[in-house]
Amino acid sequence: MLQEDDEAMAAIPQSLTTPLPPMPGGPITGPDAWRADEVRERDDWVHALNETAIAEIDAAVEAADTGGRPIAGIGREDFPLPTLGPVLDTIREELLRGRGFVLIRGLPIERYSVRRRAIAFWGIGAFLGRAVSQNAMGHLLGHVIDLGRTNDDYRARTYQTRDRQFFHADSCDVVGLLCIRKAKKGGLSAIVSSVTLYNEMLARSPELAAELFRPLHFDRRGEVPEGEPPWYEMPVFNWHEGRLSTHYVRRYIQSIRRLPEVPPLTERQIAAFDLLDEIAEDPGVQLRMDFEPGDMQFLHNPQILHDRTAFEDGGDPGERRHLLRLWLCAPDGRALPPAYAGRWGSAEIGNRGGIVVKDAIAHVPIEP
């Protein structure tokens, strides 16, 4: 919710060269305006699966894995979770209208085959939303694993590398990760509240905060929907129906400048990115997590930016860091401004998100 603050409203610059899009009048309060130094010592964002929940998951996996049924055809009605299901509904509410993140611990992946651990993660995800394609190959289930690529390749996605990701938001309502194997070293998850980033920017430099409400060009990294240019345009900060939704991928903002038809970044834009990144690096703002096998993290992209530290794998292929990933379209997500349609395909609640290109066939690969 918006805090009425006449002094903060007066701080918003009124003399910029072009009219500003809609903006909040001051700092934003509410459960999504959290700081790491306030939540780090609490555990109300961690849900540990108990024996009853695990038994329900085991039974649901057994029931769903019959007759060679395609994983993509498994819905929540095919994955009965009598007591865990209502808990997941509560978690979805917390994701979409509360703090925006949760860590679910204790999925017993060691007892499942490769296919059954995918079914378990898929079935749990079905209580939070509908899976959408994560890339130009139509993957509904992603594999976050080093494929030997680097961020120097403008067509590479950072999840295919061992490089640091840097703070960004994915193109869907909710992103979920399931840890299969940890890295030998590094690979920590880091998250920040984008509402807190805005509040801190507003306090330090209202003019730079305002700059991020203007549309910017983002690189599609070669994943171009039919009839669209190799970029999309939207602001970093979007104020719509009383909520702030954030979309930020600095690498993609920078890499699209390789094209001569895309205007260069201004000094003010670069200064705004630098300030946002500086605030995100503040230990009081940034919350880090070290995943264990069986941990599942779910984030609400419009209000959480996430990052991953660089990592080092072991020498054996079976020792590579490996996470499964879901991009989910929530049936009851928040209202988003029309600008999101340029990247999400649509801003319509329950019918948006993902990357769809010509001739891609949606499917669920259970191996990287």
For the residues shown, what is the average pLDDT?
A: 91
Distance between the termini: 42 Å
* Overall form: globular
> What share of the residues lie within helices?
10-25%
Known CATH architecture of the domain at 60-207 and 280-344: 4-Layer Sandwich
Biggest sheet, in brief?
7 strands, mixed
Could you say what the CATH topology of the domain at 60-207 and 280-344 is called? Double-stranded beta-helix
Order of helices and strands: HHEHHEHEEEEEHHEEEEHHEEEEEH
CATH class category name of the domain at 60-207 and 280-344 = Alpha Beta
The CATH superfamily of the domain at 60-207 and 280-344 bears the name Clavaminate synthase-like
Which structural class fits the helix and strand makeup? alpha+beta
Structural description of this entry:
- This protein has ten helices and 16 strands.
- Strand 10 and strand 11 form a beta hairpin.
- 25% of the residues lie in helices and 18% in strands.
- The model is unreliable at 1-17 (pLDDT under 50).
- Helix 3 packs across helix 5 and helix 6 (194-204) packs across helix 9 (267-280).
- The strands form five sheets. Strands 1, 2, 3, 4, 5, 13 and 16 form a seven-stranded mixed sheet that branches.
- It is of the alpha+beta class and 368 residues long.
- It is globular, with a radius of gyration of 20 Å.
- The longest helix has 14 residues, at 51-64.
- It has a domain at 60-207 and 280-344: Clavaminate synthase-like (Double-stranded beta-helix, 4-Layer Sandwich).
